[in-house]
Amino acid sequence: MSGFDLSAILGNPEYVAMLLHGIEMTFIIFAGSWSLAMALAVLLLSLRLSPFRFGDPIVAAYVSYHRNVPTLVQLMLWYFGIFTLMPSGLGEWLAIHNAEAIFAVIGLGLCQAAYFSEDLRSGVRSVGPGQMEAARALGHGYVSAMRFVIMPQGVRNALPPLVNHSVSLFKNSSLAVIIGASELTHAVKEIENLSFRTFEIYLIGTVLYLFFSLVIMSIGAYLSMRADPARSARA
Amino acid sequence: MIHDMIAIVRDYWLLLLIGQYPNGPLGGLANTLILSALSIALAFPVSIVFAMARLSQSPLLRWPVTALVYFTRGVPLLMLILWSYFLVPLLTGADVPSFVTMLTTLVVYQSAFLSEVVRAGIVALGPGQMDAARALGHGHIGAMRYIILPQALYNMIPSILSTFVSTIKDTTLGYVINVPDLTFAASQVNNQLLTQPFQVFLILAIVYFAICWTLTYFANRLERRITRRRAGLLNVPAALVTPSKIVSEQL
């Protein structure tokens, strides 16, 4: 192996297929955990906003756990710990159905829900109390006021941190390699082992991650611009 | 199950605390904390230089650092660790311990993130401070040194503390290159026991939680105190001042 040669990897159909499979798995894990996180975040938020008195400390504990324990440790606890405690039938079923990816989605999704729900909460909190009063005065009920007046503004306020955390989630999907999911980082390490083209394959992997992160950031910038053109122009 | 966990802690507390220290390299929780403290201590001065460069008028200073910050924020930390795992020995030509590799990565990574914090701190002060300092006869460097940075850094203490928390969490990724830290020690314990992975990793999670939660708690209290002091409201009851939660970089 001598000299810099990207074609040693990109010219090899086997390596390209491994890379494409890695990208596909990364996106499956990203999309799966993002959806799980968003659904849970909305649930956590409504628990917090509800008059149910015990909702607050429960959500606070949930958020606190997921923010103060390293994501890697959370993944390990799920995959090495909880997986082994499962009843053997369920465990076998999971093992056949790509348990690594499933636990990556669960672990990353639950962790991310804590961040998303805090983003949404601060977004909703920054909507002035007058909005709710005005909506109620116009004859909206609580739910309908939330649905049509408060939430649209709250989500718009929360967009920038939500986008940042979506990028973090995308990058954190690389942690799935540690529990053995065959995503992009896994493909990079495999190809490195096979080809010994360390520099080239890391470069390709890095450029791919950077590219997709920048794509997510641009989508976020576009959404913020559409949601609030005036503020984006000022920023 | 709690009985199992107590037994694990009783049998392996020394390994979890300092690794195989007298008979091998220092490891465990001690290593995690040393690694985090060292990387923040080294990243802090670098981040101030980076922040100055990003705020500088000269594009020659501004562009390379901006590119580096964007690069570091767009690439997973795991990828950066793998890069230094193969680049650092190549550049130094020596057999480098994984601790040093991890330290190098964390310094680069946290410098990029901290520099954004420092930059925000300086920008938040507003241009008036700089104008006033210049009017008093300070040069740009002198104004930065004596007027801007002391104020900005004081206001940033809570954010620096929360960067420290994220660094502690980041050190877990040293696991992939076998840095003998707390996570590594826990997986050693797990390999010896084999039958109680849930208990072992739950202990690990609890230890990290205890450390990071405590630090986050102090960061939040400090932040409230500093906000009040800046608003000139130090003797006003806390309830009258809206606290702003610290959002730590996640990992």
The succession of helices and strands of chain B, N to C, reads HHHHHHHHH
Major sheet summary line of chain B:
none
Number of strands of chain B: 0
Q: What percent strand of chain B? A: under 5%
Largest sheet of chain A: none
Query: Helix count of chain A?
Result: 11
Helix content of chain B: over 70%
Q: What proportion of the residues of chain A is helical, as a percent range?
A: over 70%
Our Rg estimate of chain B from Cα atoms comes to 21 Å
Q: Separation of termini of chain A?
A: 49 Å
Kindly state the mean pLDDT of chain B as a whole number? 88
Using the alpha-carbon principal axes, give the shape of chain A: globular
Structural class of chain B: mainly alpha
Of all chain pairs, the largest interface belongs to: A-B, 45 and 41 residues
Radius of gyration of chain A in whole Å, from Cα?
21 Å
Mean pLDDT of chain A: 91
Oligomer: heterodimer
Distance between the termini of chain B: 28 Å
Tally of helical runs of chain B: 9
Give the amount of beta strand of chain A, in percent.
under 5%
